[in-house]
Amino acid sequence: MLVRCCRVKLSVWAALCVLVIGWFYVFPVYRLPSDKEIVEEVLGLGEAWKKNQTGIDLYRNLLTECCNPRWMFAVTKENAPIGKVLWYDGEYYYSHTVNDETYSVFVQEAELGVRRSRGTPDAYLHSVYRLRTTTPLKPLKKCAVVGNGGILRHSKCGRDINQADFIMRCNLPPLTKEYLEDVGNKTHLVTANPSIIEKRFQGLLWSRKAFLDYLKAYGSSFVYMPAFSMKPGTDPSLRAYYTVTDSSSNLTMLFANPDFLRNVGKFWKARGVHAKRLSTGLFLVSLALGMCDEVTVYGFWPFSIALDGQPISHHYYDNILPGKWFHAMPEEFVQLWHLHKSGTLRVKKQMIKKIDLFMHAANYKFVGTSSDAISE
C-alpha cells in the first residue's frame, strides 16, 4: 500500500514538472534588458556598414533549414492539400482541416519574384509581379521591408524605398500623397491583419467598396493575411479573399502558412526574442532574409522620442499603441541591429547616423513598442 501511494505521488509530481517545464517554454521568465543595456549594446557595435555575403548566405541557409520561406511562407495547393490539418500558430488548441472550400482559395504554388520583360536590358524591370510559372524565378535582388514607425515621418526615405526591386509593407499602411516623400508609393507585398479588416472595414459584412478603394494604393501586389493564426481571423480573411477575387482588382491574395509563422517564431526565440508573438515586421524580415540577395529595413524604431528629442508618434500616420506585452520590440530591434552591424541586412544609412547621435544623448525614454512593423 505504501509503495502504491509513493508511486501515485511520484506520478503526480512528474506530471506537475512536465506541466511547469511546458509553461516556461511557452511563457519563459526572463529579464528585459534595461534602456541603458540596450543602448550600450548598440553603441558597442560600431557605426560602419559593409555587406557581408557570408553572413547573408548563412542566414539564408539557416532560415531555409528551419522554415523554408520560398516554399512554406504561404499556404498553397502543393503544401496544403485537401485533408491536411493546419494548426493555428497563435492558438495552440485550434486547427483547420483543409476542405474543398478552403483548398479552392489557395494558390497553386507561391514563389515571389520579379519577372523581366523579354528582349529588354536586365536592369529594366517588368511591371508585373506574379506567381511562378514554368520559368524559375531568379532570387530577389534588393528587397525593402518597410515598417510603420514614426521615425519615417520627415525621413525622406521614399525615393530610396521605391528603388528597391521588391518592397514589403506592413498592415495596410496609408500611401497617400502626404507620405510619399517619406515612405514611397510602390508595393509588391503588403500584409493585412484580420483585426484591421474588422475594425477599419466592419469585417466586410456590409459595403465592401471602401475596402477595394483603399487597396488601389497597392497596385498589383500580393496581400498577405494570417488567416490561420487565430481562429477569429479566418472568416474575415476569407471575406477579404472573396471581396478581392470577385472584383476586377489585380491584387493576389496569399494566406500565411501557420507552420512557417510558428517555425519563424521558434527561430527568433532561440536567438533571444521572447514574445507572445513576433511583430509583422520581423516575420517579413525573415521572409526577405530567406529569399533576397540584399535586405534593407525602414521604419523600425523602439523609442518614443524622435531624433531631435521631441516626442515621436507610434506610427508615421497615427499614434495608436498596440496592446502591452504582445511584442518584444526592444529585443527585435537589438537583433536587427546585430544583423546590420554584421553586414547581413541594412538599416538605412541616413537613419543609422541619426540613431548613433540619438543613442549618445541622455535621459531618453525607451518604451519598446514604437517600431512597427508592428502587427496590431
Describe what this molecule looks like in 3D.
The chain is α/β, with parallel strands linked by helices and 376 residues long. It is built from 14 helices and 9 strands. The strands form 2 sheets. Strands 7-6-5-4-3-8-9 form a 7-stranded parallel beta sheet, with helices on both faces. Strands 1-2 form a two-stranded antiparallel ribbon. The longest helix has 25 residues, at 2-26. The chain is globular. Residues 2-10, 23-27, 115-136 and 359-376 have low confidence and may be disordered.
What is shown here, in short?
This protein is α/β, with parallel strands linked by helices. It is 38% helix and 10% strand. It has one domain: sialyltransferase cstii, chain A.
Keywords:
sialyltransferase cstii, chain A, single chain, 7-stranded parallel β-sheet, 376 residues, alpha/beta, two-stranded antiparallel ribbon, 10% strand, 38% helix, 14 helices, disordered C terminus, disordered N terminus
Compile the SSE list and pairings.
Elements: H1 2-26, H2 35-43, H3 53-66, H4 69-72, E1 85-87, E2 95-97, H5 100-105, E3 140-146, H6 158-162, E4 166-169, H7 180-183, E5 189-191, H8 194-201, H9 209-215, E6 222-225, H10 234-245, E7 252-255, H11 258-269, H12 280-291, E8 292-298, H13 329-341, E9 346-347, H14 349-360
Parallel strand pairs: 3-4, 3-8, 4-5, 5-6, 6-7, 8-9
Antiparallel strand pairs: 1-2
Helix pairs in contact: 3-12, 8-10
